[in-house]
Amino acid sequence: MSAGSVAVVVTEEIGLPSWELYELSIPLTVFGKPQPDLAEHWYDLRLCSTRESGAGEREGEGAGEKEGAGEGPRGGGDFGLSLRTPYGLDGLVGADTVVVTSVPDRCVEEGAPLPPGLADALRRAHAAGARMVSLCTGAFALAEAGLLDGRRATAHWMHTAQLAARYPEVTVDDSVLYVDDGDVLTSAGLTAGLDLCLHLVRRDLGAHVANQLARRMVVPAHRPGGQAQFIDLSVPATDDEGLGAVLEWARAHLDRPLTVDDLARRAALSPRTLYRRVQAATGTTPLQWLLNQRLARAQGLLESTDLPVEKIGELSGLGTANNLRHHFLKQVGVSPGDYRRAFFSGQDA
User: Which Gene Ontology molecular function entries are recorded, alphabetically (predicted)?
Assistant: First the structure.
């Protein structure tokens, strides 16, 4: 498996808002630091500036200096920073993957034009065979370039209505963490961008490498793209407390064949009312919540015990070893055996 080259667009170099640095740092962290013990050939990362003078200022400098974000951040107003990068927009063409982490706020909120040349450079990169990726508001750049027309895409839920209104040819889904449409991928904001970048590593280098990298970054090994990006927790405190006791009881009895009716009786609620409250509090259905808890229990047992898979399936409530493998592959992306080899600590839970 090959990692290939990744070109990251830096769309604003003067007064880059500090909150946008988070999204910019995600691909730098995932793709920019070699992991020789995980893969012999890691990604070849380059930063590409929308500022015309970005590349020229760095001509003649050593290759080692080009591996990072230029000569480093300089202080800016409003807690912003400026970056100087070794490449201009021409650096996008020829990359295997192009990542746009964000666009300037004025392009989203005020409908201001994108930085000059960006949309054209994105079109040329895609025509040359690049896989196109956006994090958060970077979707506005891909949409402006016409690369999302006729496709399903997402962005941070705070901006999806603007994206849909401005680009009616795009099918905008405001409920998911990320959308993988083959050669064009989009994610919601902030940590969802990390989920998408790890998803790319999983596609390129396999589940084992992606899971090991996630463990080093102390983040979940795999959150499926279809998982909700926004969960409404605004339920009354009294309801939270009552529901919380039932959910804690369920966690303590995951080895039992629990049903929605069982939880409803425990909560002294009708099944329909319980369904609504669980969905409001957790963002998912009662049965999916139970499955998630059982998978989490199985993960913990795989990490901390040498119990056979059959016993772990029984203790977690997932039943047979085959059923455990099925759900593990579907939800976690690896088999229970591969997961244990990657994460086994040898310490009892």
Answer: DNA-binding transcription factor activity; sequence-specific DNA binding
Report whether pLDDT(12) > 90: no
pLDDT at 54 over 60: no
Cβ neighbors of 279 (< 8 A, separation 6 or more) are 285, 286
pTM for this predicted structure: 0.63
Q: How far apart are CA 129 and CA 96, in angstroms?
A: 7
- HSE, CB side, 13 Å, CA atoms: give it for residue 187: 26
Paired tokens of 270: 């009708």
pLDDT in tens, 55-88: 444 333 333 333 333 344 333 445 556 677 889 9
Q: Report the C-alpha gap between 4 and 19 in whole angstroms.
A: 28
Q: pLDDT: is 8 or 80 the higher one?
A: 8
Q: Which CATH class is domain 233-349?
A: mainly alpha
Residue 82 is predicted with a pLDDT of: 67
d(CA 329, CA 77): 48
> Which ranges in the chain are annotated with CATH 1.10.10.60?
233-349
Spell out a b/e string for 30-60, using b for 16 or more CB atoms within 10 Å of the CB, else e: bbbebbeebbeebbbbbbbbbbeebbeebee
Task: Give ranges for CATH 3.40.50.880 in the chain.
Answer: 5-216
* Strand partners of residue 44: 5
Distance set, CA 48 to CA 10, 67, 117, 259, 308 (Å): 6, 12, 12, 53, 50
d(CA 324, CA 310): 8
**Cα torsion for 110, 112, 115, 119, to the nearest 10°?**
100
Class for domain 5-216, per CATH?
Answer: alpha beta
pLDDT band (50, 70, 90) for residue 283: confident
Q: The tokens of 129 are what?
A: 């065979």
Nearest to 231 by CA among 221, 222, 223, 241: 223
Mean pLDDT along residues 2-25: 77
